[in-house]
From TrEMBL:
<dbReference type="InterPro" id="IPR011008">
    <property type="entry name" value="Dimeric_a/b-barrel"/>
</dbReference>
<dbReference type="GO" id="GO:0006355">
    <property type="term" value="P:regulation of DNA-templated transcription"/>
</dbReference>
<keyword id="KW-0010">Activator</keyword>
<dbReference type="InterPro" id="IPR000485">
    <property type="entry name" value="AsnC-type_HTH_dom"/>
</dbReference>
<feature type="domain" description="HTH asnC-type">
    <location>
        <begin position="11"/>
        <end position="72"/>
    </location>
</feature>
<dbReference type="Pfam" id="PF01037">
    <property type="entry name" value="AsnC_trans_reg"/>
</dbReference>
<dbReference type="InterPro" id="IPR011991">
    <property type="entry name" value="ArsR-like_HTH"/>
</dbReference>
<dbReference type="InterPro" id="IPR036390">
    <property type="entry name" value="WH_DNA-bd_sf"/>
</dbReference>
<dbReference type="GO" id="GO:0043200">
    <property type="term" value="P:response to amino acid"/>
</dbReference>
<keyword id="KW-0805">Transcription regulation</keyword>
<dbReference type="InterPro" id="IPR019887">
    <property type="entry name" value="Tscrpt_reg_AsnC/Lrp_C"/>
</dbReference>
<dbReference type="GO" id="GO:0043565">
    <property type="term" value="F:sequence-specific DNA binding"/>
</dbReference>
<dbReference type="Pfam" id="PF13412">
    <property type="entry name" value="HTH_24"/>
</dbReference>
<dbReference type="InterPro" id="IPR019888">
    <property type="entry name" value="Tscrpt_reg_AsnC-like"/>
</dbReference>
<keyword id="KW-0804">Transcription</keyword>
<dbReference type="InterPro" id="IPR019885">
    <property type="entry name" value="Tscrpt_reg_HTH_AsnC-type_CS"/>
</dbReference>
<protein>
    <submittedName>
        <fullName>Lrp/AsnC family transcriptional regulator, leucine-responsive regulatory protein</fullName>
    </submittedName>
</protein>
């Protein structure tokens, strides 16, 4: 994975090693983390705290098996807006964040405005979310759906 230069982000190689190790296992004890990055515990804890204070490490999460919860239907929904002035974008952003089935929302430079990752129990539930929630978001002109057939790699959320 490409990283910005240290001058851009103000972090060095050891900070990057800490970040990479925690991406692999966020529950890693500080002793194991310090050993992995080649520091003693105290300097490692200081660096970890600094990364958190600066917002580079924003938190630690459990990685959930969505399929085990019955949420294994994933669709990507393209959303085209009628209006892309700032007030319309703000209204859309505020409303889309209230739909629990929307796992991700990205504004794109494309022939449409937003790409949503939507996770539901099945196609019937997706259809309800699309028809009652997504299509009724402020300023929505049209949507297109792409159903995920297989996931090879997914970011931990």
């Amino acid at each position: 994975m490409a990283h910005p230069s240290s001058a851009d982000s103000g972090i060095d190689l050891i900070d990057r090693k800490i970040i990479d190790a925690l991406r692999q296992d966020a529950r890693m004890p500080i002793g194991a983390l310090s050993e992995r990055v080649g520091l003693s515990k105290t300097p490692c804890q200081v660096r970890l705290k600094r990364l958190q204070e600066r917002g580079i490490i924003r938190g630690f999460r459990a990685v959930i098996d969505a399929a085990a919860l019955g949420l294994d239907y994933v669709a990507f929904t393209e959303v085209k807006l009628l209006d892309t002035r700032e007030a319309a974008l703000a209204a859309f952003r505020q409303a889309v964040l209230k739909i629990p089935e929307v796992e991700e929302c990205h504004m794109l430079a494309a022939s449409f405005d937003y790409l949503l990752k939507v996770r539901t129990t099945d196609i019937r539930r997706y259809r309800i979310v699309l028809g009652e929630s997504i299509s009724n978001l402020p300023h929505v002109a049209s949507t297109s759906t792409f159903v995920v057939m297989e996931t090879l790699r997914e970011a931990a959320s």
